[in-house]
């Protein structure tokens, strides 16, 4: 397959001649991981863009009044796979919904996204990432088109090697499409017109009904057919041609004949001269027919492979789009739950000890915690959960939860184990893998309402030449059952989020999708196999690690607040979250200084006010938490910094060597994080 270029290595053409738009766009594009090429005018923009341009950032005022003819001509000349993405920066109130002039740019440029100024950096970065993904899919399409062209060339080479002519006849219009080799068999030049009536006229009158019969028989009953007929050439000498035809039908119901031809004049002359050697001649015909069938099989196999590739591409695009949606929703829910859980923690500590009131508060905390658990499942499916990776023996992990698994399935189901103690450790998050195992076992139990046997085994396998996995050794955790099984249609949807075969209220449909996302995040894979009535087997493949299993140290369940009160700078642009964090810290006895932006925080840090710790949100306008941390360390190099974020995984390009506290968190989580930060 043709190589697909890394779109991040391709230039982004930026055409924003006025103001600071060019420098701002270039800086944001560097965050995305791409380099910008600056165009000073629309005319220069038309010169710079080509098939190797990643995408274009241009202001509306640059295009307004400019001669877009050269640019439109270049865009119109794009190959069929290419639809160059444009990000158009419009002025305030200049979005396409309110500005017909901006909307008309869609007709001129084609693939356009509008960003209204002033814009949030994350809005621009999101559009840039979308453009990158769109361009990547276009380069994938180019690679597949080239692959199909290569396949066509191979087919033409095969036909030329076999001296076979190719032809196609539309049974509705009787329009004939013929190759040069096919025409040559009738004594015609490659450039000469050759219609169906010309073909019939060139055939010997005694044999013409054979050819006409192919179309008639095919239109009635379909199938393949072969005829040998005499052809009249201008030289008057007898010639023979062999036609092979197959009936094809399109999705619209239109019928057509496709086939190959071969000049068999020499063979027929030999038949007439050597009728006594008919057995040998029949053997030669059989051999050549087998060659033709092989050519047909090769064409059909290439078509089937193309259809499978297209289906896999559509499925991958759908899952990627769902993953982006769920990851964003989970982040927003984490921030909302932060304010709820923080205030409930304080309310639980300070309300009068009334049993009914405490029960109501505990119910609210339990509901908020369930919401936090749901966001973790969504992040697991989106492959964005925060994993604590350590080398761990998968066999030891299974052995450690045998009692829990037994209690989970009940008395009607038997669990049998086959654990290989020689399996090398895998680099995993033990809690997440235990949760995945429990989920698989509970699913197996639910598939056996009348009881049955669940088999949990571990071993180590070698993987090579796998489309999903890198070559190497993998620890394999298998859970199989003797339950109802699944048909092919259900199995194909099993890992999709919110898909469930259970009754309403008995499952969220996120279990297998969470395990699927976890496996991919761990650079492994989840493999499912099942047949109706023959049970289901789930295989979780995890790459083994060269590191040894670390010694486990005892960790307190709840971190106590630090006895020494500290002065804590809290930075968060969300008033509710900031208020909740301040209340939690003050309740722990700390002194709190509050800032609602990175700029305000830097002013405080630059002053002589004592600050022991800074706790900052990551996602803030103008200056995010990572940028604030870098700037703060320039002023106070030894300042301890704690990064609080609703993202389970920071966006690309935001890697920071800072301790993190994932939202939503309880008060004891906050106290433990501060204590660890102070001790460190």
What is the structure about, briefly put?
With 680 residues, the chain is α/β, with parallel strands linked by helices. 46% of the residues lie in helices and 19% in strands. Strand 16 and strand 17 (536-543) form a beta hairpin.
Total helical elements? 21
Amount of beta strand: 15-25%
- Number of β-strand runs: 22
Look at the structure and name the CATH superfamily of the largest domain: Histidine kinase-like ATPase, C-terminal domain
State the separation between the terminal residues, measured CA to CA: 52 Å
Largest sheet entry: 5 strands, parallel
The number of domains is 4
- Helix amount, in percent? 40-55%
- The CATH class assignment of the largest domain is Alpha Beta
**Global outline:** flat
The CATH topology of the largest domain corresponds to Heat Shock Protein 90
**What strand order characterises the main sheet?**
2-1-3-4-5
Q: What's the alpha carbon Rg, rounded to whole Å? A: 35 Å
Oligomeric category: single chain
Q: What's the pLDDT, averaged over the residues?
A: 79
Name the CATH architecture of the largest domain. Answer: 2-Layer Sandwich
């Amino acid at each position: 397959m043709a190589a697909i270029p890394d779109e991040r290595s391709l230039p982004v053409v930026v055409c924003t001649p006025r103001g600071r738009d060019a420098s701002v766009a270039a800086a944001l594009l560097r965050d995305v991981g791409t380099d910008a090429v600056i165009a000073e005018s629309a005319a220069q923009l038309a010169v710079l863009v080509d098939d190797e341009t990643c995408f274009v950032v241009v202001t509306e005022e640059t295009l307004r009044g400019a001669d877009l003819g050269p640019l439109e001509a270049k865009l119109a000349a794009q190959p069929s796979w290419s639809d160059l993405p444009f990000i158009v920066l419009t002025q305030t109130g200049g979005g396409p919904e309110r500005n017909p002039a901006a909307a008309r740019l869609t007709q001129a440029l084609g693939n356009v996204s509008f960003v209204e100024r002033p814009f949030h950096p994350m809005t621009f970065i999101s559009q840039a990432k979308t453009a990158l993904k769109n361009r990547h899919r276009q380069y994938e399409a180019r690679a597949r088109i080239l692959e199909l062209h290569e396949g066509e060339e191979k087919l033409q080479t095969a036909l030329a090697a076999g001296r076979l002519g190719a032809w196609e006849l539309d049974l509705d219009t009787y329009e004939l499409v013929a190759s040069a080799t096919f025409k040559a068999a009738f004594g015609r030049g490659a450039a000469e017109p050759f219609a169906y009536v010309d073909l019939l006229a060139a055939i010997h009158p005694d044999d013409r009904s054979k050819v006409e019969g192919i179309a008639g028989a095919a239109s009635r009953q379909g199938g393949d057919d072969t005829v040998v007929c005499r052809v009249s050439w201008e030289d008057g000498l007898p010639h023979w041609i062999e036609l092979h035809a197959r009936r094809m039908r399109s999705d619209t119901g239109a019928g057509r004949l496709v086939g190959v031809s071969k000049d068999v004049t020499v063979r027929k002359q030999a038949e007439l001269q050597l009728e006594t050697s008919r057995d040998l001649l029949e053997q030669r015909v059989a051999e050549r027919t087998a060659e033709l069938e092989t050519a047909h099989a090769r064409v059909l196999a290439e078509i089937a492979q193309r259809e499978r590739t297209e289906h896999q591409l559509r499925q991958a695009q759908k899952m990627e789009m769902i993953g982006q949606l769920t990851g964003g929703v989970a982040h927003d829910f984490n921030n909302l739950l932060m304010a709820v859980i923080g205030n409930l923690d304080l309310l639980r500590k300070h309300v009068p000890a009334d049993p009914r009131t405490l029960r109501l508060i505990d119910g609210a905390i339990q509901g908020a915690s369930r919401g936090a658990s749901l966001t973790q499942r969504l992040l697991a499916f989106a492959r964005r959960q925060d994993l604590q990776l350590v080398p761990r023996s998968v066999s030891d992990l299974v052995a450690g939860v045998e009692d829990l698994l037994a209690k989970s399935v009940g008395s009607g189901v038997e669990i049998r184990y086959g654990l290989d103690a020689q399996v090398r450790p895998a680099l995993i998050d033990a809690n997440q893998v235990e949760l995945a195992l429990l989920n698989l076992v509970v699913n197996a139990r639910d598939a056996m309402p009348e009881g049955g046997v669940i088999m949990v085994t571990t071993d180590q396998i070698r993987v090579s030449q796998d489309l999903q996995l890198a070559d190497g050794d993998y620890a394999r955790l298998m859970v199989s059952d003797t339950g109802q099984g699944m048909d092919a249609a259900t199995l194909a949807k099993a890992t999709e989020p919110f898909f469930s075969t259970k009754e309403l209220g008995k499952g969220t449909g996120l279990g297998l999708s969470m395990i699927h996302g976890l496996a991919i995040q761990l650079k492994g894979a989840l493999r499912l196999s099942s047949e109706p009535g023959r049970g289901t087997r789930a295989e979780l493949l995890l790459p083994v690690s060269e590191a040894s299993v670390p010694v486990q140290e005892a960790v307190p369940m709840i971190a106590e607040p630090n006895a020494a009160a500290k002065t804590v700078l809290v930075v968060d642009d969300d008033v509710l979250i900031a208020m909740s964090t301040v209340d939690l810290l003050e309740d722990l006895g700390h002194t709190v200084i509050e800032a609602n932006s990175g700029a305000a925080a830097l002013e405080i840090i630059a002053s002589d006010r004592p600050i022991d710790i800074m706790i900052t949100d990551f996602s803030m306008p103008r200056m995010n938490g990572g940028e604030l941390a870098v700037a703060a360390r320039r002023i106070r190099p030894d300042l301890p910094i704690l990064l609080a974020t609703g993202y389970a995984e920071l966006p690309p390009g935001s890697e920071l060597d800072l301790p993190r506290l994932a939202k939503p968190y309880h008060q004891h989580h906050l106290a433990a994080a501060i204590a660890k930060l102070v001790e460190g």
